[in-house]
Amino acid sequence: MLAVLCNFAFWRLLIALQNRDVRSGFIPARGRWSELRTGRIPHLQDYWTNGVWGDAVALSLVDWVVFSALSREGLNWWMVLFLPVGAVCAVAYFKMATRDERARKGMDWWFVSYIRDFRIVGLGITTAGRLHIMYFALQSGAGFVGLTLLLSARMEATEAAIGIAGGILYGAAFFADKLQGHFE
Question: Could you tell me if residue 184 is inside a domain?
Fold first, then answer.
């Protein structure tokens, strides 16, 4: 249960930091038009993955399963690999999310590109965006541990079912975002 509370608290902190970035003028308010863009700036809550269904619900299920299995199985030497796995996933996510094609597309709750005369003149990562990269690393590492425990049959059937349900829910949220044009 502690893992679920920590995940939810982390997710709420991302929203609080996003709201701080809005108050400071770093990103426009939710639903407002950007002065530099011809569209609204999507906020964390406008994504299926970052909104309630992905990060708050699906990853809470996965985190609960991973930490439930760990509390029963104990720590093992290979689990330190969650650090490099999480770091590699976070770097890959950062590179994908900040590539030139995406920067030209626009900005959202965590990545801001400033374009004038059809040229990128500046890039910025919001406070919430910086924290989200760390969150992504931790969740990727937890997913690695959970998948390894699942594939090595070191989870109880209920844990496995809940973990798989969380993974499917997150996958559905990801594809819903893809259908809405996010992550391009």
Answer: no
Higher pLDDT, 38 or 27: 27
Provide the 3-class DSSP secondary structure of residue 35. coil
Distance CA 120, CA 152 (A): 47
Instruction: Give the percent of the chain with pLDDT over 70.
Output: 83
CA–CA dist 81, 108 (Å, integer): 31
Q: What's residue 168's pLDDT?
A: 96
Cα separation, 170 vs 58, in Å, equals 5
> How far is C-alpha 80 from the chain's CA centre?
21
Distance from the first to the final alpha carbon of the chain:
35
- Above 60 in pLDDT, residue 33? no
Q: How many domains does the chain have?
A: 1
How many CB atoms are located within 10 Å of the residue 32 CB? 11
Count of other CB atoms within 10 angstroms of residue 74 = 8
Give pTM, 2 decimals: 0.82
Residue 33, domain extent: 2-179
153 in helix, strand or coil?
A: coil
Integer Cα distance of 142 and 147 in angstroms = 9
74 falls within a domain: yes
Tell which wins on pLDDT, 32 or 130: 130
Using only C-alpha atoms, the chain has a radius of gyration, in whole angstroms, of 18
